Amino acid sequence: MNFDADAARAWVVAAAAAVTENADHLTQLDSAIGDADHGVNLKRGFTAVTAALDGFAADGPGAVLVKTGTTLISKVGGASGPLYGSAFRAIGKALDGPEADAAALGAALRDGLAAIRKLGAAAPGDKTMVDALDPAVEAFVAAAPDGLGPAAEAAAQAAEAGAKATAELQARKGRASYLGARSVGHQDPGATSTALILRALATVLD
Ligand code: ADP
Ligand code: MG
Ligand code: MG
């Protein structure tokens, strides 16, 4: 099976369900080191995305993901909206044609990471979503020769490990950075939602 428009749609719908189901947890994490709105922001954004994709005619996965990104940018006020929005848009722009194989999706995910890093200027270790996405993209690309399912599973596991590891880090970007050393000991909300979004991809491609 290749990554086509239906698979992209299924990924986004599964990601929407995951962030909605975990919205309270994400907001709790954000209440410790931010402004207690991450779950609310993503729930609102992904609810708008599923509505926008309903009946949206797409000729390939790229169109679905560009639409997802554009909608997140317009509907989410917090930092995470433009960051996730530009990532989905970059992933979608990288995917032309009716379907993508694992190598193409890996390259597209790398473009998504680059978009987040360009917009947010966060490096690995700054305690942001980059700490989940960067190892996930590397794991996906490394496992791409094994196919989409194994690559997505490797990416989800790497994202989960990266998100957990943010607890030990001091924040250097975003609102959590205002806390300085007091941000240590709390898992980053954005890294946590990135792990949910990549777990959703693994579930859909399994
Ligand atoms: P806000 O901080 O505006 O309330 P959210 O709560 O929705 O937005 O999202 C916060 C998350 O966004 C953080 O946990 C972090 O992962 C991510 N984030 C914040 N600033 C940056 C940045 N400059 N680069 C990458 N990720 C960032
Ligand atoms: Mg917040
Ligand atoms: Mg906010």
UniProtKB/TrEMBL annotation:
<protein>
    <submittedName>
        <fullName>Dihydroxyacetone kinase subunit L</fullName>
    </submittedName>
</protein>
<keyword id="KW-0808">Transferase</keyword>
<keyword id="KW-0418">Kinase</keyword>
<dbReference type="Pfam" id="PF02734">
    <property type="entry name" value="Dak2"/>
</dbReference>
<dbReference type="GO" id="GO:0019563">
    <property type="term" value="P:glycerol catabolic process"/>
</dbReference>
<dbReference type="InterPro" id="IPR012737">
    <property type="entry name" value="DhaK_L_YcgS"/>
</dbReference>
<dbReference type="InterPro" id="IPR004007">
    <property type="entry name" value="DhaL_dom"/>
</dbReference>
<dbReference type="GO" id="GO:0004371">
    <property type="term" value="F:glycerone kinase activity"/>
</dbReference>
<dbReference type="InterPro" id="IPR050861">
    <property type="entry name" value="Dihydroxyacetone_Kinase"/>
</dbReference>
<feature type="domain" description="DhaL">
    <location>
        <begin position="6"/>
        <end position="203"/>
    </location>
</feature>
<dbReference type="GO" id="GO:0005829">
    <property type="term" value="C:cytosol"/>
</dbReference>
<dbReference type="InterPro" id="IPR036117">
    <property type="entry name" value="DhaL_dom_sf"/>
</dbReference>
